[in-house]
Amino acid sequence: MPELPEVETVKRILQKNILNKTILDIEVRYDKIIQNQSKDDFINKLKNQTFIDLKRRGKYLICVLTDYYLIVHLRMEGKFFYMHNEPYSIHDHIIFKFDNSELRYNDTRKFGTMHLIDKNIDIYNTYPLNKLGKEPYDEGFDYLYLKPLFNKSNKPIKTTLLDQSIIAGLGNIYVDEVLFMSNIHPLEKTKNLNDENIKSIVSNSIIVLNKAINLGGTTIKSFQSSHDITGRFQNELLVHTKYKCPTCNTKILKIKVGGRGTYYCENCQKITSIDK
DNA sequence: CAGGTCTCCTGCTAGC
DNA sequence: TGCTAGCAGGAGACCT
To answer: Which of A15, A166, A255, A274 is the most buried (most CB within 10 A)?
Structure first.
């Protein structure tokens, strides 16, 4: 499940493979991936476009083309494969054909999305990027940014940290890690966090993401950034999918928070505050 | 407006 | 062994 570090890894790998390559043809085998155009418009616009640059915003990958931005969200299982003549997979849904190679968008669960936007539009102020909050790497991602947003939320902190309009880029795995490192219970009501808690979340978000990016992201079940590159961060996970707490050896509990599988240590992560 | 639930989709697994 | 019901999950849609 690609989160910010995985998308960053994909971006870096694609930069090596597809930069300056021109799309000669496109094959769309499953068109629900395409969000804001008809399949025909999508194909016509992308023909003869060159990949000029690749960027990332939160969990979105931004392909900068000659005249357009192609904004991709990999959701659960989206992957890009840079291929030559290898046989196709039934999960290859969109194929960008270059001179003697191609880029294949492969997505087992078909949850991924692609938005094609004109280059003269300010994409950061346009859907879907306009609804993203700051990401942990942004200037101004600090206690003063989070405090007022947290103060008005009655949701569990786990749910809040997954809200991309508040923090862009954290997903299920990394939120569990951040909460563990910060000694905060996932069900703690967001508005009840104290200043110390918020500062912990700020610093631990950056620490966890940095470490994950340096290790190429996490490989859990199906995510891989390209054929033979596998993230190594899963070896460093502290609570997510773990059985014993690395700090106190207590059994890790698995619960559901907002429908998401959530791991935590009941000894290290206690609900401390009462309602204001 | 905030918060809850349903939906998309497929591979995997528990249970019979 | 083979089948099926149930589950996982990011984020938008829809409802209260």
So the answer is: A166
**Which residues of A have a catalytic role annotated?**
2-3, 59, 260
Distance CA A200, CA A182 (A): 5
Q: What is the pLDDT of residues A57-103, one digit of tens each?
A: 999 999 999 999 999 999 988 999 999 989 999 999 999 999 999 99
Rounded distance between C-alpha atoms, residue A133 and residue A124, angstroms? 11
Q: Which amino acid is at A90?
A: I
Nearest to A19 by CA among A81, A65, A62, A59: A65
Q: Does strand C come within 7 Å of the CB of A155? A: no
Nucleotide nearest to A260 (CA to C1'): C9
DSSP symbol at A19: T
Question: Can you tell me which residue has its alpha carbon closest to the C1' of nucleotide C10?
Answer: A75
> For residue A111, what are its two tokens?
């949850």
